[in-house]
Amino acid sequence: MSTEIKAPVFPESVAEGTVATWHKQPGEACSRDELIVDIETDKVVLEVVAPADGVIEEVLKGEGDTCESGEVIGKFKEGAAGESKPAESKPEAKAEAPKEEAPAATSGDAILSPAARKLAEENNVDPASVKGTGKDGRVTKEDVQNFVDSSKSSGGAAAKPAAMPEVNVAQGERPEKRVPMTRLRASIAKRLVDAQQTAAMLTTFNEVNMAPIMELRKQYQDSFVKRHGIKLGFMSFFTKAATEALKRFPAVNASIDGNDMVYHGYQDIGVAVSTDRGLVVPVLRDSDAMGLADIEKKIVEYGTKAKEGKLAIEDMTGGTFTITNGGIFGSLISTPILNPPQTAILGMHKIQERPMAVNGKVEILPMMYLALSYDHRMIDGKEAVQFLVAIKEMLEDPARILLDV
């Protein structure tokens, strides 16, 4: 029985994808739920598995081809185990001389999947120096990522040879390198431009004394780690403070859909995470029901997934508000751009000691600038300022978060 192999149904925010890697070829045996093809979208890499035991009958979309949501990319023949025997005999023949085959994959032109080639170009990695673990010595995206990670941990020495030709140039020459945008980078660019062109965006600023939070962390850090197995960070406090403030100012937690204003009766807070491929925003669902430890664990989980490229589309859709932290890179103050269709985004920044007037005296305090960018079509300036002040007050007196005052 022949069935169609279709690309997954993409969310509304994803228009199309690219066939990244066929893990099985026509005539090759497949087991039920075995990975057969990867589809790369603007946000994540989606996996398509075999619907049953059988063989790939025909490939309609090759690696590098563009496909739409639900489009047929191949044909699968269920229960056709007999046709897979010729394909099964190939590995046995190759297994006789594995030592001769391995150098061939690395000494000449390495065989890369489209996703692996893009990642190699972005990180200036010489494909020939990456050992492929895929079929027939193919270098997969995971192989390149592992190579990049190991290079970073060893000081980046392994990645330097690929960049050397650009350094050893004749005097007077001005070399350039043209690299096509990845799907993720192109998607980020489009969303940011759309946000600035369609929203009446405005930013309001304030500053917060981080001493109370820092003292609280210092006092309870050891107990927190012993109890929950994870460190207490700043993001969990900001998430809880934002959650309480969103309850008080529903317009900041709303979104615009055409001419309609959609008010959400829940708080799903997106936390911006920087990766080698670009910025992604996984979402903390129902943050109101999460404790500080739950938030910290989820952030670490998302960070690990983002680094490994394993975030699912479901992890990054449906947020009602976003928090971004430029302070980890040293940013003192900035104006974050909205994450449509959300109407507001909170920007955290670097903690820096500054002289402040306290009760008529000058004190040196660890201060952080806060920035709230918002869509003025939905949120009035008064609401935006009061929302940011509410966050400031809760952070400077953390008991307010627990008491909801």
UniProtKB/TrEMBL annotation:
Transmembrane segments: none annotated. It holds the Pfam family 2-oxoacid_dh. E2 component of the 2-oxoglutarate dehydrogenase (OGDH) complex which catalyzes the second step in the conversion of 2-oxoglutarate to succinyl-CoA and CO(2). Residues 2-77 form the Lipoyl-binding domain. GO terms for molecular function: dihydrolipoyllysine-residue succinyltransferase activity. Belongs to the 2-oxoacid dehydrogenase family. Pathway: Amino-acid degradation; L-lysine degradation via saccharopine pathway; glutaryl-CoA from L-lysine: step 6/6. The lineage of its organism: Bacteria, Pseudomonadati, Pseudomonadota, Gammaproteobacteria, Pseudomonadales. Binds 1 lipoyl cofactor covalently. Keywords: Acyltransferase, Lipoyl, Transferase, Tricarboxylic acid cycle. This is Dihydrolipoyllysine-residue succinyltransferase component of 2-oxoglutarate dehydrogenase complex. PROSITE patterns: BIOTINYL_LIPOYL (PS50968), PSBD (PS51826). Its EC number is 2.3.1.61.
